[in-house]
Design brief:
Largest sheet: 4 strands, mixed
Order of helices and strands: HEEEEEHEEEEEEE
Strand order of the largest sheet: 1-8-9-12
Oligomer: single chain
Number of domains: 1
Low-confidence stretches: 29-38
Strand content: 25-35%
Radius of gyration: 27 Å
Mean pLDDT: 78
Structural class: alpha+beta
Distance between the termini: 66 Å
């Protein structure tokens, strides 16, 4: 006894309907690929608030036993601390900073997308006696983390009775 397989009705579309479906799917895929997100272009980094200067992105605060010293935020307030923190990466080419007038803040970020740009903002909250350093990453498409940067900024001297709060927005 021979058995015949019966295909479901949706599989047995007339050739013209199958062709139309294929075209529709193909056009939809092309549209999604060709459509360019208006914010995909890399934006310039932005500095807001108390920031006087941003150090080069290759400045990394690193110690052999501890690793990345800026992963939770770092506040550098003396030339000795400055030389020590950057002895691993760039001791021979440190930017000149007058630590009697300025401090250095850093908060490491790791790119989470393509065409990343950063908004670095430092604000002073006199009511709560704190300095707030916020970093926001803008990117086109989410991607695997590729590289990091220390986001070191020079700001006016932090008063001795103030604390520094670090905020990382992705």
């Amino acid at each position: 006894m021979a058995t015949h397989l019966v295909e479901p009705e949706w599989v047995m579309l007339p050739d013209t309907k199958q062709l139309s479906m294929k075209k529709l799917i193909l056009l939809s895929l092309l549209g999604m690929i060709a459509c360019k997100d208006p914010f995909c272009e890399k934006r310039p980094d932005e500095e807001v608030g108390l920031i006087e200067k941003v150090l080069a992105k290759d400045y990394l605060a690193y110690e052999q036993n501890t690793g990345d010293l800026a992963r939770n935020g770092i506040h550098i307030s003396s030339a000795e601390q400055y030389r020590q923190v950057f002895s691993y990466c760039c001791a021979t080419r440190l930017d000149s900073i007058d630590f009697s007038r300025y401090d250095l803040l850093g908060l490491t970020t790791v790119n989470r997308g393509s065409n990343s740009s950063y908004r670095r903002e430092v604000r002073r909250d006199d009511t709560n006696k704190k300095i707030i350093y916020t970093i926001t990453e803008h990117y086109c498409q989410k991607a695997s983390p590729v590289d990091g940067q220390g986001n070191f900024v020079v700001i006016p001297k932090v008063p001795a009775d103030y604390r520094v709060e670090y905020i990382r927005n992705n």
